[in-house]
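Narrative progress, year one. The postdoctoral researcher (J.K.) led the effort to move from monomer predictions toward full complexes, under supervision of the PI. The following entry was the first complex the group processed end to end, covering 535 residues in total.
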Amino acid sequence: MNSISKYFSDLFKGISSLWAGMRVTGKYFVSPGQIVTQQYPENRATLKMEPRFKGEIIMPHDENNQHACTGCGICEINCPNGSIEIITDRVPNADGKLERVIDKHIFHLSMCTFCGLCVKTCPSDALAFGQEFEHAVFDRHKLTKVLNQPGSSLKKEAKK
Amino acid sequence: MSEEIIKDVIVRENEDYIINMGPQHPSTHGVLRFEVCLKGETVKYLIPHIGYIHRGIEKMCEADTYQQIIHLTDRMDYLSAHINNEAVCMVVEEAMQVEVPERVKYIRTILDELNRLASHQLWWCAFGMDLGALTAFFYGLRDREHILDIFEESFGSRLLHSFNTPGGLMHDVHPNFQKRTKEFITYFRKKLPEYDQLLTGNIIFQERVKGVGYMSREKAIAYGVTGPSARGSNLACDIRKIAPYGAYDKVQFNEILMTEGDTFARYQVRMGEMWESMKIIEQLIDNIPEGDFTAKMKPIIKLPAGEYFKRVETARGELAVYVVSDGNKTPYRMKFRSPNFSNLFVMNELAAGGKIADLVAISGSLDLVIPDIDR
């Protein structure tokens, strides 16, 4: 007799606990306004990342195709993974003296861990984080990027 | 005494029926292999095989400067990345005898607790999913997203946010940080009771976790189990209480202790800790002092020759960092005492004699993060 009453009490306890959970899910079922799911590939046009988002490393250029990188190599030294490579060149300036300019600022996105040390330690604020986050490509060589645009030059005021 | 508690010799026999759980099993939450010996449905013994994602972080640290080490510690226990960062930063600050500003201490403590909340939420999702409650998975992730959004706004990354740096923070928190954190706390105070309605009170869930995987207090001490898993066995081991760091000495909170020692007790400890974390954040969030976000540090940090040790409480237990410096800009030796490593090896004791279906519940209740075990 005792086992039968235990069987039924367990049964009702089970149904009531199930009902408690179902009430929560049912509440969201009848009020779709509380659903927070984002329809990702469809909402690309409106999807905005935070301004501080670390998507990739970029070198901002101004309207005259000028950047602030002097090629000092501090970012290269500070990078823990060797994802930055700087190839510098020496060209004569107006006074005829040889001056260091960057030829290529190479960034290996595939090795980067986004620790932010390069951006933080850059003395002339030449690097920044970009908001781009869709990095999937079919060929991994496409993940090696040259940050300085072709034909770009050093900002004159950044030199001082 | 320890010989009685620790069954350190497992005798393999030829006629043992061995089944491998893992390396890639949904409930091991990482690349971990359990060699399970079965007798019918009963587990005879269990041997964890680790090392599938060993990256040699301790060795890599020896080649990196102290600023560069930070980003490696993110990748040990990725769910409490901020707390791992803080451990290394505190060792360096102690060795350099740098007093970090009060603002940094407050922000670090708030972020620690947010990190702990996010970690416990993900544990709750995954624990529910291991035991067949898929709804729990989505509800937990929904709330975790709010914390990750706060992180993303302030540091630019959601999970591995190398935000601490020796001496302070990489940059100041976002101006919206206080407002959004307070909004989140009021939001989550309403949502946390839903967790209890969905999972804690559920009869199927209770039948599967109550009385399963009993760990005595002595066993927890013998195996070096720490964190919520040990507090479920009535072992008071919270570093935040024993050796307060950051702003933990300025806040009032309870250390959740349970005496049962079973899977359900460990579950209840973590649920209780979520309430306590919210209490800590509420006490600190309005009182963040103004000031610098970093102390003055030299660009090249050279620790004076010697040994340094510091421990923190991550979401899974006690993380201790031990540094030997020979005066160079890189450490001579770096040793991490990670909580998950000790928590994993008590598995045999908990699972042996039980059913194989309970194994999932036990490994879920220990909340293992495999990269922290392998390092």
